[in-house]
């Protein structure tokens, strides 16, 4: 029950954080691009729950959920959304470039597939040092049409690198459906050409994702080489807050909402988990978000005279 409660708490934290960000964006308190993760929470929570603190996470531009469940403080994530100096990237990255090396969270990347080479580099470093670590790399199904995808899988297989490839297949790369983008839409099979173990997973079931991630990480830690999970999920909101969402039918979205990962886990926890328990958990999360918003509003923007800082490294060797 406790493990289920922890998984539920993290999914609710992500969902309510995203909902609040949508409100703040509409009020022009958050600016720039904003890609929300609503509906996909089971993927981030299920995978990251099976990682150790020394493992690494590489994300996409839809990165808020990954950062939060990885342990990046909500205050730091929200401040980054506001462009404040207390943000995890000092307000310089915004929504798409969350980064926190202290939690081994290596982005946030605005380039489709851009995190794949980063993950290979991290995994190669761990392998060369003999460190028993796993690198979890999240990417969307759209990235499976990019050259980096094939290059990364080839090198990971060739060098037997400790990479867990996590394909978040939400059926739409921006406004292009999977069927119109990929001639062979069964993405898990792509890994077989490189000799990588891979399998599809119900990405709307956090328990199924957790179990698949456990199986994969155990194999990787045992020296079995990389694995790929095709996590079949669905985003309930548009691609971004700028997106008018004219490319998919409202009935399709409604159908997927019937498989809401939060509702499914709550149902699995009944009758031990009551409506009062859920209300208390929602109140706890709401208070955390309120604190993060207040802290972000009160924080300062970095002074203009510091804008050229970090363009080059301040570390001398």
Structural write-up:
It is a single chain. The protein has a single domain (2-306), classed as Rossmann fold (3-Layer(aba) Sandwich). The protein is built from 11 helices and 7 strands. The chain has helices at residues 2-26, 41-48, 64-70, 74-81, 115-129, 147-158, 178-181, 206-221, 250-257, 261-269, 275-298; strands at residues 56-58, 135-140, 163-169, 172-173, 176-177, 197-202, 227-232. The chain has a 5-stranded parallel beta sheet with strand order 1-2-3-7-6, with helices on both faces. A two-stranded antiparallel sheet has the order 4-5. The N and C termini lie far apart (50 Å).
Q: Would you identify the CATH H-level superfamily?
A: Thiamin diphosphate (ThDP)-binding fold, Pyr/PP domains
Strand order of the largest sheet: 1-2-3-7-6
Radius of gyration: 19 Å
Mean pLDDT metric: 95
Fraction in helix: 40-55%
Shape: globular
State the oligomer: single chain
CATH topology: Rossmann fold
User: What is the end-to-end distance?
Assistant: 50 Å
Number of DSSP strand runs: 7
- Give the number of domains: 1
Strand portion, in percent?
5-15%
CATH architecture: 3-Layer(aba) Sandwich
SSE string, helices as H and strands as E: HHEHHHEHEEEHEHEHHH
Highest CATH level, the class: Alpha Beta
SSE blueprint:
Layout: H1 2-26, H2 41-48, E1 56-58, H3 64-70, H4 74-81, H5 115-129, E2 135-140, H6 147-158, E3 163-169, E4 172-173, E5 176-177, H7 178-181, E6 197-202, H8 206-221, E7 227-232, H9 250-257, H10 261-269, H11 275-298
Helix pairs in contact: 1-2, 1-3, 1-10, 1-11, 2-3, 2-8, 4-11, 5-6
